[in-house]
């Protein structure tokens, strides 16, 4: 989805920051001035390192308010939007608090009259800053897990229209995606299905269009769906610009025409307002069916299908071809 760096644990961040602290050496001063300069140098090394790391993490996560509703739903399914917001907020709190501590302790160090006052101010700032980081260690761990999940989730380009292919298992959805895509489809893993989702791209004129199939999702009736699947289907409603429903009239997929018809009825009810194109695949097997006759095996009817997709994208709300 997005390049998010590995999120370090609170201890790793502190180790990194204290390594910087140890490198601070003052050579051009002596006596208490040297002690004071070293202390302020160390404190700023500590707080700047930590705040730069935390700031990088906050910026690395996609902005939740601006993303495509489909991606937002996916993040909600896999990570939890509220938890993600809460953790990012906590990290921001830690960043600000570390900066505030630094400013206060800086003043104490500047006003200190003895070396021991300086070192006690410095030690107390080390302790306070470490404890702030330790307070958000759970949130850092959570963000690292979230990062792993988001990293593996393929992004959807919100500027490119999306054609979603639906139909019972084995009717040929993945083959169709492969046939109409200009390159090799990417097999993506999404949190709502254990099966790989194929995502291909096709070009119509100057426009790039995304095509995806939906294994485990739009391949059986919507009753008895679990919460995650329902949420994923809602996400698809945000995403789909055109729906292609695939029949296998040969029934070699293992599903009767009656079952396939019932699924179509469900999908029509769920995706109202989204142009629907009905195709019958495997026409090479000689069994005619509804809609456009195609064969993903020998390419028959593929040009027709592309034409209909083109028309449906032009007219969004109105096209219904079946
Ligand atoms: N005869 C024939 N078989 C096809 C055609 N399209 C797909 N198949 C076969 O149907 C099976 C299921 O195809 P697949 O694309 O994986 O279906 P999906 O589960 O809907 O994605 C595979 O064995 C394909 O080779 C076709 O046009 N003609
Ligand atoms: Mg498939």
Describe this entry's structure for a reader.
The protein is built from 10 helices and 8 strands. The protein has 322 residues and is α/β, with parallel strands linked by helices. It has 2 domains: 10-151, Four Helix Bundle (Hemerythrin (Met), subunit A), CATH 1.20.120; 162-321, Rossmann fold, CATH 3.40.50.300. Strands 1, 2, 3, 4, 5, 6, 7 and 8 form an 8-stranded mixed sheet that branches. The longest helix is centred in the first third of the chain and has 31 residues, at 81-111. The radius of gyration is 29 Å and the shape is elongated. The relative contact order is 0.11. Residues 317-322 have low confidence and may be disordered. Guanosine-5'-diphosphate (GDP) is lined by residues 167, 169-175, 213, 281-282, 284-285, 295-297.
Task: Sum up the structure in keywords.
322 residues, alpha/beta, Four Helix Bundle (Hemerythrin (Met), subunit A), Rossmann fold, 2 domains, eight-stranded mixed sheet, 10 helices, 8 strands, 52% helix, disordered C terminus, binds guanosine-5'-diphosphate, binds magnesium ion
